[in-house]
């Protein structure tokens, strides 16, 4: 079984979603199915079919979350230090072309949210940065062409 890196924050979010699905969503859909069954003929009962479809989605998501949590390798970012870019690092970059400063945190696949500055460990920018240190340049293959960034700062928070 391949372990998947994940921050403690990401692990907690997935665990919270799993608990919500099991304790709130699953019982609600079971109640909806029971109510729809009381309406009679199931072959033409849209409420029943919609509830069964939702139940299928919930059960699939529960299985997916349980698998992800079982394979998770939780990394405590606060215990990391240094100036080398690794999983969990918050990296401040300077775009070589525009001189614009950007900051990204390298996180697990399920935690990635570019709007919040979180990039997946699998993303092209994270792969280009891993192993580099402050002052190094990283070339990233982007859809609009290659971009060059200089690593200005590496933090673990």
From TrEMBL:
Boundaries of every Transcription elongation factor GreA/GreB N-terminal domain copy: 5-74
A biological process from GO: DNA-templated transcription elongation
One family name in Pfam for this protein: GreA_GreB
SUPFAM superfamilies: FKBP-like, GreA transcript cleavage protein, N-terminal domain
Keyword annotations: DNA-binding, Elongation factor, Protein biosynthesis, Transcription, Transcription regulation
Keyword ATP-binding part of the UniProt annotation: no
Domain Transcription elongation factor GreA/GreB C-terminal positions: 82-155
GO MF term set: DNA binding; RNA polymerase binding; translation elongation factor activity
InterPro entries per the UniProt record, alphabetical: GreA/GreB_C_sf, TF_GreA/GreB_CS, Tscrpt_elong_fac_GreA, Tscrpt_elong_fac_GreA/B, Tscrpt_elong_fac_GreA/B_C, Tscrpt_elong_fac_GreA/B_fam, Tscrpt_elong_fac_GreA/B_N, Tscrpt_elong_fac_GreA/B_N_sf
Stored NCBIfam families: greA, PRK00226.1-2, PRK00226.1-4, PRK00226.1-5
Family: Belongs to the GreA/GreB family.
Role summary: Necessary for efficient RNA polymerase transcription elongation past template-encoded arresting sites. The arresting sites in DNA have the property of trapping a certain fraction of elongating RNA polymerases that pass through, resulting in locked ternary complexes. Cleavage of the nascent transcript by cleavage factors such as GreA or GreB allows the resumption of elongation from the new 3'terminus. GreA releases sequences of 2 to 3 nucleotides.
Protein name per UniProt: Transcription elongation factor GreA
Organism for this UniProt entry: Henriciella algicola
Gene: greA
């Amino acid at each position: 079984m391949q372990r998947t890196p994940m921050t403690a924050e990401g692990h907690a979010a997935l665990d919270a979603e799993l608990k919500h699905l099991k304790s709130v969503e699953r019982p609600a859909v079971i109640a909806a199915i029971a109510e729809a069954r009381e309406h009679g003929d199931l072959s033409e009962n849209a409420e029943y079919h919609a509830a069964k479809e939702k139940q299928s989605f919930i059960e699939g998501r529960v299985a997916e979350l349980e698998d992800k949590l079982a394979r998770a390798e939780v990394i405590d970012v606060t215990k990391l230090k240094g100036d080398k870019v690794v999983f969990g690092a918050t990296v401040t970059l300077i775009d070589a072309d525009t001189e614009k400063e950007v900051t990204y945190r390298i996180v697990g696949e399920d935690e990635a949210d570019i709007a919040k500055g979180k990039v997946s460990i699998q993303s092209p920018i994270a792969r280009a940065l891993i192993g580099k240190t402050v002052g190094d340049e990283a070339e990233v293959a982007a859809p609009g062409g290659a971009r060059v960034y200089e690593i200005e700062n590496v933090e673990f928070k």
